[in-house]
Amino acid sequence: MQELIRRPRRLRTSPTLRRMVQETTLTPSDFVMPLFICHGEKISQPVGSMPGVNRVSIDVAVAECRELQQLGIPAVILFGIPAAKDPLGKEGYDDNGIIQQAVRAIKQAVPELLVITDVCLCEYTDHGHCGVIVDGDVHNDTTVELLVKEAISHARAGADIVAPSDMMDGRIGSIREGLDEAGFSQIPVMSYSVKYCSAFYGPFRDAADSTPQFGDRKTYQMDPANSREAIVEASLDVEEGADFLMVKPALPYLDIIASLKENFSLPLAAYHVSGEYAMIKAAGRNGWLDEAKAMEESLLSIKRAGADIIISYYAKEFAQRYQGK
Ligand code: PBG
Fold first, then answer.
1. How far is CA 112 from the centre of its chain?
2. Where are the alpha helices (DSSP H) in the chain?
3. Residue 199 exposed, middle or buried by CB count within 10 Å (0-12, 13-18, 19+)
4. Of 85, 107, 149, 248, which is the active-site residue?
5. How far apart, in Å, are the Cα atoms of 243 and each of 18, 84, 114?
6. Which residues, 6 or more positions from 75, have their beta carbon under 8 angstroms from its beta carbon?
7. Is the pLDDT at 209 greater than 90, yes or no?
8. In this structure, are residues 310 and 31 in contact, taking their beta carbons and an 8 Å threshold?
9. How far is the CA of 250 from the centre of ligand 1 (A)?
10. Is 137 helix (H, G, I), strand (E, B) or coil?
11. Where along this sequence does the record place binding of Mg(2+) (predicted)?
């Protein structure tokens, strides 16, 4: 016999005891479900690289939102697939654009469900970049002006929260000012504060058809090698009036989530992105790992690291399992 006073295994002897000492729990209310909305009717078009995720028309999205709300999910985040793309991403800030129409329909049908809108131009530009191109690069301040128009247009349609994902400098302050001047001082801004230039967005770009047609996003999204820079970005967002901070992607950046949690007091969201979802799906479908367990472990890790809110394509599946459906 070893003479051990401390035996941590004592607290692992039964499921009940393990549950009693469990430090982190997940419930459907931790989640936000992303939806891709397209024009048309009765459309539910599978996204090849994201099994289980579809591009849906507004009528289908409304039905989906009802279901999500009944499953206990508090919010959706909407991404738009426009009818046409152009260099300035005009449909993004058109009051009759796909997102504006979708927000109106969802808020009318399921008013209790929070609707968050992704504020960015990459889904709407023909070159696939997140803003206006001048001399081969995204021009910061011109882009910010359009993002302000987009955010106000989303708020006018009835969005509950706007979430800028473009990574332009100063956009949070400008959007805050624009919303306030337009009479939307009560609409919170969820900033994609710390958004890395990541390979894990690949499947999303399939879904939104938003792959940059030249170059990459390195002049605006962050270098995966950097962590102090995350503090700089988040500090600026706090100063500029953000109501939520976000880290994106999630699993490869758990250290960043933990660091933001320690350094800031605003609610913290983490985006478990398309590639993170696709990896687990693919391995699960191949029988290489247990998909449900890998999903839960991943999502739990994101919460344990410090996220208060998890944006994930697994939100619905998690909630269905949680509710025993
Ligand atoms: C728009 C945006 C992207 C994602 C969310 N908002 C794509 C990108 O930056 O290329 C990615 C989300 C995901 O991969 O699930 N800028």
1. 20
2. 15-20, 58-70, 98-109, 140-157, 171-181, 202-208, 228-240, 254-263, 274-285, 291-305, 315-322
3. exposed
4. 248
5. 36, 32, 15
6. 31, 32, 33, 113, 114, 115, 116, 160, 161
7. no
8. yes
9. 13
10. strand
11. 233
ipTM entry: 0.96
| Tally of CB atoms within 10 A around 279 | 16
Q: Environment class of residue 112 by beta-carbon count within 10 Å: exposed (0-12), middle (13-18) or buried (19+)?
A: exposed
Q: Which amino acid residue places its CA nearest to atom 7 of ligand 1?
A: 201
Q: Residue 156 — left, alpha, or beta (φ > 0 → left; ψ -120 to 50 → alpha)?
A: alpha
Q: What is the pTM of this model?
A: 0.97
pLDDT class for 325, splitting at 50, 70, 90?
Answer: confident
Beta bridge partners of 35: 78
Question: How distant is the alpha carbon of residue 249 from its chain centre?
Answer: 9
Please state, in angstroms and rounded to a whole number, the distance separating the CA atoms of residues 80 and 102: 9
36 lines ligand 1 (CB under 6 A): no
